[in-house]
Amino acid sequence: MTQQQAPATLDYRSPTTPTPLSQKVLGWLNVVGTFAALLLVFGFFSVMAPQSFPTAQNIETLARQTTTVAIGAMGMTLIIVAGGIDLSVGSIVALVVVVIAMVLQAGAGPWIAAVAGILTGAACGLLNGLLITSLRVVPFIVTLGMLEALRGLATHLAHEQPIYSKPQGLQKIIAALGPAERWKIFPAGVWIMLVIVALTAVLLRYTRFGRHVVAVGSNEQTARLCGIPVTRVKVLVYTLGGLITGIAGLMQYSRLTIGDPTIAQGMELDIIAAVVIGGGSLSGGEGSALGSLIGAAIMATISAGGSHLGWANSTQRIITGAIIIVAVALDQLRHRTAAAAQGD
Amino acid sequence: MTPPRLEMLGVKKRFGATAALGGVDFSVPAGSVHALVGENGAGKSTLMKVLAGAHPADEGAMRLDGEPYAPRDPMDARRAGVAMIYQELSLCPHLSVEENILLGMEPTVAAGFLRRAEIRRRAREALARLGHAEIPPALMTGKLSNAKQQLVEIARAVAIGCRVLVLDEPTSSLSQADAQALFELVDQLKAEGHAIVYISHFLEEVRRVSDHFTVLRDGKSVGSGVTAEASTDQIVQMMVGREVNDLYPRSKRTPGEIVLELSSLSGKKKPRDATLALRRGEVLGIAGLMGAGRTELLRAVFGLDPVRSGEVRLLAFHGNAAPSQRWQQGAGMLSEDRKREGLALGLSIADNLTLSRLNGLGPPGFIIPRRQRAAAQTWVERIGVRCRSPRQAVGTLSGGNQQKVAIARLLHHDVDVLLLDEPTRGIDVASKAQIYRLIDELAARGKAVLMVSSYLPELLGTCDRVAVMSRGVLGQAKPVEQIDAHQIMLEATGS
Predict the structure, then answer these.
(1) DSSP string, B105-136
(2) Where are the beta strands (DSSP E) in B147-273?
């Protein structure tokens, strides 16, 4: 088959005019806007606590605290862009943490434990994907069920109590850097997070699979018409999401070094909030890795800044809640403006 | 002299820098039907919104029975007696028929409790006035057919005691028989003294139902008159602002080998035992009524619907295949439902156009957005899609331009066999003409086109052979010279 032979005699009535600038701006406005919000929040706390907040040390702490949620948000970004949702990520993190602790307890090395944890996450995601596509039950319900079931499994495996085992170096992934290691700028976990963000961004924007994910989320019927294997894309998305959640679980273990089956309760909501603040749409087709990262950073900044100022946890939660709603309202406004600018 | 029921004088509306309406004048007396015609993007939908109170007019005046009419919101318009029947049904499928009919105007007793008996009575009365007392008021609306749902919408308008009824492309989702019934209903409502504004692309319909017409172009009313006194050519000329000749071009086509062969193909319910052979360089049309199984036939061939028995041979491939395989084998399908299935409206032109074939736009597995846009840009220019850039979301284009993007997907994929389901549904005359030319050129270049259409003139104009489908059964394809519209209708209705 030859490529792109076009009928030559069709008229060229309306060549496009090169005015995509406004559209480029609108496209970027989301990420830029979210980033501006992060700067605003950061600036606010810097003014309120000029001695302790805007320091290199604190920024490193912030980056470390963002890691788990930000990595989890990458998996969630893929799932939400594909038009799905995963409520079971908190439970997956708990299961991963328990599995890592158990494998270490059994005498295996840190690498084996880490890989076992990540694969556990992937397996959970695979199960989510298979259940959603084969039973044809909406993702919300399937993953709500999995939230319960996986939490139960984690508790059962841990015999209803935390597992203490030697972390064998896994604690170093996300630990604060000692003075001799300052040249690394951030601990390995933060770098891993940045790499995952970059990979997710590239996957979504620059790969065939990524565009298929967007297409499935934007309009599943069109995707099917165009020959996209919708079921396979969905299963893969949930598996990949689970795998990335497994990495988030590894970070969680590194931070606490305990196989605590009650950990990460409600983390799925923080992760979903990060994606939504970053421009993800729960009706699918929209969302970006960078936006979700910034969303996670905003939430971490508020919680860290709040503790610097001695705010009560209740105050922090009220503010975070308000920010979620305002972020989505602004996003809606942006959409309407964009639609109006393009006419009907 | 009594003032007209509805009058619009110099109505203007701007959105940012674009003037959507640049001065619209027309008036409709009580007991008459006024047709509004114009290409897509001519401003009909904006005019509707102004009339319905969804957008305030910037300039100009509207009058109802001589009184100033300036609705603040859609509810205000309904209270004033202006009712809209939109192209896309605006009913709540999960509510009952009676709840939909009185939605937003439910009679209540103290504390907001519904007066169920009153609701039922008024719903029945409205349905009875339309001559459709057989629709059960307690039925879940989503279970009704499209035609019945539309009746529920009209009943809703009647129930509020509307003075002006606006129908926007009301036949777009109706079968021929249902459309006939609708025309009769419009006649009846007119006789009862309603003023009716009828918006349509189909000039035959306009002729059938309207007394007067106004043509909109680029947001302005450019002509009007008594429908019976204007020729179709005159109206079309006003619509496009220039002469349309040679709507259906026919280059020399030389039929080649058979590229698509169906042997006794049966789907779940439809089609039943369909047999057909399509050759290179040929345009084969499938005529029939809505629900005859034409779309199901295409979908079964393309692997979107299950095949129960029979065989498909596509080029060198035998047997059934999923849509992804069909694309690889060299077939592409254009969906009849552009908005829900054909295109992902939120995605860009470039994404939509290249979706079925993202290979070759970067290293294996990767896509370079710049190349993707360049590929899209080529097609945008070649088939004349009016847009600002390939980045633009497809949903922001007019219907005709959306359809061109959907067709361009098949061209980008460079398929040999094109399955086109209603390729010109709901698009303007100028875009139609371009699509007819495109189909002709594709056939002349040796592509094979299997085309389903409910619009007989276009089937007769573009196809080499036409087969008629009726109740799931596909008839013998006959050369277009040996068949006429009358015969097709007879076969389609099974008489």
Answers:
(1) ---B-GGG-B-HHHHHHHHHHHHHHTT-TTS-
(2) 164-168, 195-199, 212-217, 220-226, 258-267
Q: Both B233 and B264 in a single domain? A: no
pLDDT tens-digit profile of A221-268?
888 888 888 999 999 999 999 999 999 999 999 999 999 999 999 999
Residues of B in contact with A209 (CB under 8 A): 365
> Which residues of chain B make contact with A5, given a CB cutoff of 8 A?
414, 445
In a domain, A128, yes or no: yes
Nearest residue on chain B to A17, alpha-carbon basis: B388
- The DSSP string of B360-417 is TSSSTTB--HHHHHHHHHHHHHHTT---S-TTSBGGGS-HHHHHHHHHHHHHHHT-SE
Q: Are A101 and A163 in contact (CB under 8 A)?
A: yes
- pLDDT, averaged across chain A: 87
Q: At residue A13, does pLDDT exceed 70?
A: no
Contact B346 A286 (CB under 8 A): yes
Distance separating alpha carbons of residues A32 and A21, to the nearest angstrom: 15
Angle at B46 between CA B42 and CA B47, to 5 degrees: 90
Q: Cα–Cα distance between B484 and B423 in angstroms, integer?
A: 21
Among residues 20-59 of chain A, which lie with CB inside 8 Å of chain B? 20, 23-24, 27
Amino acid identity, position B185: L
DSSP SS3 for B255: coil
By Cβ distance, the residue of B368, B369, B389 closest to A23 is B389
Scan residues 270-299 of A and list those with Cβ closer than 8 Å to B: 285-286
- CATH number of the domain where residue A165 is located: 1.10.3470
Specify the length of chain A in residues.
344
Which H/E stretch holds residue B325? helix B323-329
Burial of A330 (0-12, 13-18, 19+ CB in 10 A): middle
For residue B441, give both structure tokens: 């050129």
Question: What is the domain range of residue B294?
Answer: 258-492
Among B356, B375, B381, beta carbon nearest to A12? B381
The answer on B230 and B290 residing in a single domain is no
Q: Suggest the residue from B13, B379, B389, B401 to mutate for an interface test with chain A (most A CBs closer than 10 A).
A: B389
Q: Do A218 and B347 touch (CB under 8 A)?
A: yes
Assign B5 to helix, strand or coil.
Answer: coil
Give me the mean pLDDT over the A303-324 stretch: 88
For chain B, report the end-to-end CA distance as a whole number of angstroms: 51
How would you label B2-24 residue by residue, b for 16+ Cβ within 10 Å and e otherwise? Answer: eebbbbbeebbbebeeebbbbeb
- Torsions phi, psi for A222 (to 5 deg): -60, -45
- Of the listed ranges A235-244, A306-315, B253-262, the least confidently predicted one is A306-315
CATH, residue B358: 3.40.50.300
What span, in angstroms and rounded, lies between the C-alpha atoms of B165 and B187? 12
- Assess if residue B150 is contained within a domain: yes
**Is there a contact between B355 and A222 if contact means CB atoms under 8 Å apart?**
yes
Is residue B321 pLDDT above 80, yes or no? yes
Q: What are the backbone angles phi and psi of residue A259, rounded to the nearest 5°?
A: -90, 75
For residues B47 and B166, membership in a common domain is answered with yes
C-beta neighbour count of B224 within 10 angstroms: 19
B359 and A221 within 8 Å at the Cβ level: the answer is no
B344, B412, B438: residue with CB nearest A7: B438
CA distance A243 to chain B (A): 21
For residues B454 and B177, the answer to whether their CB atoms sit within 8 Å is no
Q: Do B381 and A16 touch (CB under 8 A)?
A: yes
